Amino acid sequence: MEDDPKPAGEIKLESYSLYFKGLVSEETTELLAGFAVIICDKDDNLLFQMKERVHDSRVVTLTEVELMALKRGLTEVVRLGIAHISIYCDHYQIFELVSLLLNCYVSHVPLP
Fold first, then answer.
1. What value, to the nearest 5°, has the Cα angle with vertex 36 and ends 15 and 24?
2. Cβ–Cβ < 8 Å for 65, 22
3. What's the pLDDT tens digit per position in 26-59?
4. At 21, which CATH number?
């Protein structure tokens, strides 16, 4: 018996995940900031990982650092040729911003 038959022309899309996190710490005499980015395939195999310190930490907010991490992550997604990605973050304002931008983008892209 065959597995569930699939319609002709159906394309299976690979699923990838982008995780990012920005950090700002005031625990020392100076303000420290940085971020990390991880990209995994559907089986959670690591494709890309990096950490970066933000050098001019005096004027950086957590939201700015999170946006830097998202930008770097999306740059790597494009470099790797990934077309479909799930984005994970724990900063609610960034989540809302990404959701809003994606909804605006999707509503203006004609479906095939």
1. 140
2. yes
3. 776 777 899 999 999 999 999 999 999 988 656 6
4. 3.30.420.10
